[in-house]
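Input sequence (426 aa), recorded before submission:
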Amino acid sequence: MTAAIFFLSASLSWAGEYDLEIPEAKKNPWELGGKLEFGYIFHQLDQESAAYRLKTFNEDERDQLSEWRTLLEWQGGYRRESFRFFLSAHHEYDQTDWGEEWTHRVYQGYFSITPSPRLTVDIGKKTFLWGKGYAWNPAGFINRPKDPDDPELSLEGFTAFSFDYIKSYAGGGLTTVAVTPVILPVFNWENTSLGESGEVNYAVKLYFLIYDTDIDLIYYGGPSQPDSYGVDFSTNLKENLEFHGELAWQKGVRRVVLDSSGRMSVSEEDQTGFLLGVRYLTASETTFIIEYYRNGAGYDRGEIEDFFAYQEAVYSRFLAGRDPSVMTNLVNRTRAYYAQKNFGRDYFYFKLSQKEPGGILYFTPWAAVIMNLQDFSFSLSPGLTYLPSANVEFAFKIIAPIGPPGTEFAEKQDDLRSEFLIRYYF
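Predicted structure, token format:
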């Protein structure tokens, strides 16, 4: 017993003599990161398609097009106590057989102040990612539209004043509530797609976490914008199975319809759109994403057939007289349709990806399908990524639009598009 006490007291005195208080590491207030991308894109052009004719009626005809692209996206910021400044930008150089183009855009640039753990105030240009859908966001009223061919691309934001207020609750089904009001003014140089200069638009999102289910209630409106109401949700039915959805209702939306003879009808209507989807991960790390999207602003099969029949008739008149104003007028009249990435009514999205098949490290093959469920045309996209190191990525994909003439995907500019990209992350 005496020996035990001796050894215990010795060990305590040893610990007391050499215990050191390790100071907390000082955080770097500066942040910087981004990616540099080099790409080659080959286009096998469809000279009979409506999109090709609209784009090239004043160009030399060709059935192939090579595109070289260099892209730099970076983000950086400064954080000190409750203050943060964040900036991100996109710089792109594209060179094709038709010419070259530079693009420089500030995606985000805002000041953020967090006076308390519950409250954050942001002012400046910011990207909003409202909604739960992977390929589309019908309730993302203040989002830039995604490209369903590449839904994970960075998106430009809007200039806004917003704040987030969050409150948590202990016990019970409701554990978190948050409110995010957003004010979006329109200037001559900013937010021009949201209305006339001097107008002010408003949005608000209410967030609830109830029994591990995320729910958002959304409103958006303004002098030139329809009153828009949305709800979305996301929940895990199992650890590896997520279910999500969105519902959007917009009041008094302007709708333009062209018939086969070119007569234009303009009306206002209430539009309802929604999305339902699942994401499933297997034990072998195969990921399935499936979504159904009802486009409230979309056109049904008959309207799309009339739309392309009208374009065919106008192009025939252009060939007869070679008057470019005929096609210029067509470009203007079809703008309401082509303003949407997918202007059909009903869509199905499916993506399958497999992480490291056969034990090949850092290699992920995948395939995706986007189908118009009314005309049954679709886009098939197989691809792969390989990361030989933590900051270098090789990516390859093919986009093949398939369908009979007069359907949405058959009238795309490309018969086949292949991309090879090298990305360096820093």
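Checked by second reader. The helical segments are 2-18, 50-56, 301-321, 324-333, 335-338.
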